[in-house]
Amino acid sequence: MKLKEQPDKQPLLLFIIIVSFLLWFFYSLYKHWKGTIEPENGYNGIDSVVGIGGLLLNAVTIYFVYITYQQQRKQIEEQNEQLAKSDKEAEFNRLLDIIYKQLDHTRFKYNADAEELFKISTALEVCDMPEIMKNLKNINNAMRALNYEGNFYAQIIERCGLNNNDRAYLYNIYNNNVPEHYVALIYNLSDFGESYAHGDEFKEKFDKEYLDYYDGAFATSNEKSITGVLDLQIEKDREKMMDKVKDEYTNFMCSLSLSAEIVERNQYYGEIFDKLN
Hints:
This protein is an all-alpha fold. The chain contains nine helices and no strands.
């Protein structure tokens, strides 16, 4: 909003009209009282005009003081709006600069092999359990990177004083720079998590195949056991393996949760951004 460059001429015109009216009114009043009121004890028509005129002039003075106050307040409000707009533009440009600089770092962090992640995403889509089991570590590593980088952008955007439209625009810059193989992983992992959370049969199947996969892998690596009895060392190795299984399982559950959060955040900003276009 631009400040007015020319002064408002309405108060000046109003002042001239009022002064002209008062001069006419006082003169007419004086002429009337001069002919009807006889001077007595030093009192005459001029005293009456002066008394009433003083009251009217005080009223006019108060009125113009009020007009001046209103004009100054309006000008201050316009200046404040202009300053707020300038501050907002400066904040927006500052965040824009931070985001574009951070994107170079983000691209370096998203360094997983594209073909490998697409293969994992397909396995999640068709529920290829053996393939998923083999790649739990890769899934968890990719989701950690996505969560860390996504949270960085979301936090700096949410902490600023910009409106939701500007925030959505800034977040969309980051979101459009997430590689396709990571995007596919996010959404297929989120769908997998939905099936796991709301399907009892799916959950039981996954948990059973998860344990069977590691039991089979452990048995294959320890075929030297005699008469089915594991020696002490093999038992210790199995305990270590089960600890690893639990850790990877916990991490995978975290990855499912993170994928749902990322999808929800993308949808939130995406809906706002779509309304801008």
